[in-house]
Amino acid sequence: xxxxxxxxxxxxxxxxxxxxxxxxxxxxxxxxxxxxxxxxxxxxxxxxxxxxxxxxxxxxxxxxxxxxxxxxxxxxxxxxxxxxxxxxxxxxxxxxxxxxxxxxxxxxxxxxxxxxxxxxxxxxxxxxxxxxxxxxxxxxxxxxxxxxxxxxxxxxxxxxxxxxxxxxx
Length: 169
Known about the structure:
This protein is an alpha/beta fold.
């Protein structure tokens, strides 16, 4: 008897990440700090750490309670994750059913199409133009067709401000 992954996982195709020779670049795709810590700053960070820090996860209950009070919602409505990627994966895993359509811009955050495929969804992508603009009308039109999920990646604050404004250049 062999143990096989689900067909959706087996069908995933991802490019191999070769990080060799990238040390001289700013690697914003890796969630890395782009400037090294000063030696004194790093020493100060280390001084505040105890051996227990490396052995146990922190207790999130105080944060959960504080968020619940501040947002005025029950704690059961809040799900804390270790970073945005874990939250995005949980959303896809929870709400996407096999065959559901996911509306995306293309290109986008690399994990959106991966999670779509992983959880059995079907990507419906609107490509950016060569001028790096998105056809908002086409996106809105497909949004009105009722995809199960829709995701727009917005990597910079300038772009975020543009999406909130009607005066984008």
